[in-house]
Design brief:
- The structure is a single chain.
- The protein is an alpha+beta fold.
- It has a domain of 104 residues: Beta Polymerase, domain 2.
- 29% of the residues lie in helices and 17% in strands.
- It contains 4 helices and 5 strands.
- The chain has a 5-stranded mixed sheet with strand order 1-2-5-4-3.
- The chain starts with 32 loop residues before the first helix and ends in a 25-residue tail after the last helix.
- The relative contact order is 0.21.
């Protein structure tokens, strides 16, 4: 499986022993209640977009108090290279529209994993085998999940761009 190639400056800091890692990570940047609410709303919009574009197993984790780097993590599975590239571009446009500029991100050459870092929200879009390999659900398993609007609805999904 390909390793992620994107890291933030904070992640590239000095290595520490496991016993030196704080059990209650402090945020690198303190966000106001308003900024946190905006990040939460954006995370839910990104998760809804992934669901509406037929991504599978979409989960939105609230990792406040568990991550020093972000507040919300969205994880979804794409079903094709084309879908993953299209949805990744739509995440970026949604971020621009909502005032969340993409801090960084990466996709591997085979498009098995796309990462979009919007600071308060990090979005991971995987193909199924890569998602199983990295198992972010295990990493964030103790974090609460947010209900994704429309994900429980049994109505028809929005058409995927390009479907005729």
């Amino acid at each position: 499986m390909p390793a992620p190639r994107f890291t933030t400056a904070a992640e590239e800091g000095p290595a520490v022993a496991d016993d030196e890692i704080p059990s209650d990570p402090q945020p690198i940047l303190k966000r106001s209640d308003e900024e946190t609410a905006e990040a939460r709303a954006f995370a839910l919009e990104a998760a809804t977009l992934a669901h509406d574009r037929r991504c599978e197993d979409v989960i939105c984790f609230d990792v406040r108090g568990q991550s020093a780097l972000t507040d919300f993590v969205v994880v979804a599975t794409g079903t094709s290279d084309r879908q993953m590239r299209t949805v990744a571009a739509e995440f970026q446009q949604l971020g621009r529209d909502r005032g969340f500029e993409r801090y960084g991100g990466e996709e591997d050459k085979l498009t098995t994993w796309v990462v979009a870092d919007f600071v308060g929200v990090v979005v991971h879009l995987f193909e199924p085998e890569t998602r199983a390999h990295y198992d972010l659900e295990m990493l964030w398993g103790d974090a609460p999940t947010l209900d994704i609007p429309g994900a429980e609805a049994s109505g028809p999904l929005k058409p995927y761009p390009g479907d005729g």
